Amino acid sequence: MDSAIVTGEARSPDAHPQRGSLAVPIGEESAHRLLPALLVAGVALLAPLPLGAAHGWAPSVLEIATFSALAFFLAAEGTGRPRRALEPLLAPAAIVSAVALLQLVPLPLGLAGWLSPAAASLHRQMIDPSARWFPLSVEPHASVVALLRLGAYAAAFVVAAAAPLPGRGSLHCWALMLSGAGAGAVAWWHWLAGWDTLLFGEFAPYHAMAATGRLHWPLLNANHLASWMNVAGILALGALLHPPLLGAAARAPAWPQRALAAAVLLLTVATLVGTRSRGGIGAALAGVAMLSLLWPATAGRRRLGLRAARAGLLAGVAAAVAWIGWVAIHPPGDEVVLAALQRRDATLQVRLEILRQSLGLIGDFPALGTGLGTYGGIFPRYQRYPLLFASVPHAHCEPLEWLTDLGVLGLAPIVFLAVRFARRASAVSGVAAQRTRAILAAAVGSLFAHAAGDFPLRLPAIALGAAILLGLLWREFAPGGGDEAPAAQWSWPDRCVGAGAFVLVLGLSTSEWRDAAAVGSVAAKRRVPTPRTAAGRVYEQIVWQRIDAAEPAVDPGLRAVLAAPVSATAHRALAHAYRSTEMRERELRRMIACEPANRYGRIEHALMLIGIGQFAAAQREIEEGFYLDPQFGDQRLLALEDPIDGNWPFLEAALRGVRRRVGISPEVRGELQRFEQTEQLLREARERRLRGP
Question: H or E element: which one contains 356?
Fold first, then answer.
């Protein structure tokens, strides 16, 4: 064994907070062994700043860095150490990976229908489905991207849990704490400079991003910034109470660590309050409560008090979960003003409405889910009034989205992992180790508490921090310890296979970067569709440019539109670029099939049907559109008059749709009265016109 290695047993628990792990002094002979930990810590330090941007290159860089760190770790240490350290987690992780990979395997439509009838029903909307094989994921490309991100987080977890650390093993805690401090400082700098970052009390979906040149960093909105402040703030509070978390020696003065921790704590608390994120502040309180409950108690009375507090906390959590479940399965009352009728802040009521409308999605895809990362593409199929105010790319509840993505078979091993993690964490012995465990568990708990009502873990920067925290927490009680560091034993075939896999993974990791570049290129070159023109005085006629079928670009473009999922940007871009009637109609029908309440798709489809003379079909489209969304209105449609009988067939169709909606949603009665008044005004105007001057 290398003489430079210092094991955890060589120090006192207070001097070495990373119990049972390797601590390697920095030197020429050990620099290559420290590279994985240094690389992951560097990425974590930069994650909320440049890597927190909403651009495709940011997650690609993060994936490349973490996969490279894992490759360097395995090349230097071999597979023995990580396998021993992570052995209890391997079987459940393998099951989750198998479910995610099964969702990407092309299957005959009959077999896919047996495994997931709802997914097969979606695939049957394709042209000639019997001659094709389909995966269970409703959007395979999104699943591949999500699987790569999940692999990157797993790589960071492995490095944080098993790779050698320099000095006293406090590298990652330093990185996460300073990362939060940097993000908070930059956010205040942007705010003081007058830049529109929408981080303090504002929400991006309600503002035009191009209007003021909004910055995409640090992170995306107030809730996400609050999540990161919670992590850094709890680590700073823990370091203030337990300086060995930052590497302070047992008998050395700890005032430098305490002073820095106090400064970071003040900055993060000020930033958290500045965000005015109710969910973030609630998650911070939950993290502090968890820290106080997990903090080791020595006196008998204090131990009894902690037990009583734990029991009260569990009872409160159970009551909150029961109340949320009860509200979620019942429609909102008449007194609730929802965003479809009046746009408001993203409140808990709106999140509960998302949960309630997602129950149908869970019922249709119970076993294997819809595929990793597909919630934003499949939820519009179940999205109904009154939740039509904006797109819903995420469920705003991570456990719910895990269930919809992976199904029961994928979520069950995740729950098993969480239970095993918690049981091992509760068995930590030693006061110093218990304090470190309490701090790390509180930081993780604040993230997951916030994730119960938002989607912070969908941001790569925050998810990376969560993976590192979980790795550090597992490191505290990992089996096998770090008493020995076996030398890597790689044969030439193993090296060749590993190098090939590494190159393949790096190539796949650039997919989000390449996708963003491709979308930008298509958007820059895409031609604007021919505007609609009026033909005659009564019905609008739509002029669709018909492209000669012999043109080489048409057939590949048509096949691409038919093969791409409706949520894919290429699907819409190609349909607009070629502008043939057939492609446009297919694109609109598929859009409506996958998103029934899509206002744009139904209006455009109704106008197309009017343009080709299918008036009855257009009326049915308008009636269904107003039933799904009482604010569906389009004046181009409602004011069109039938030249034969003088009625307004599309206004009448709208009235039929709104009357159907009033039967189950009495709060939209005002919309019905508005349409009835419009009809009455039109009739009076026609009578005056017929009477003449």
Answer: helix 348-364
